[in-house]
Amino acid sequence: MRQALVTGATGTVGHPVARLLAERGVPVRALVRDPARAVLPPGVEPLAGDVTDPASLRAAVRGCDAVFHAAGLPGQWLRDPARFERVNVDGTRAMVEAALAEGVGCFVHTSTTNVFERPQDGPFDESELTERPLRTAYERSKQRADRLVAEAVGRGLPARIVHPAAVFGPGPATATGLNRLLVDLARRKVPMLAPGGLAVVFNEDLAEGQLAAAQAPAGSRFLFSDRFLELPELAALVRQVVPGARVPTTLASPSAWVYAAAGELTARFTGRAPQLSFGELHFLGSELTPDARRARIELGWRPTDPREAVARTLRAFGVRGPADN
Question: 32 has which bridge partners?
Answer without folding.
Answer: 48
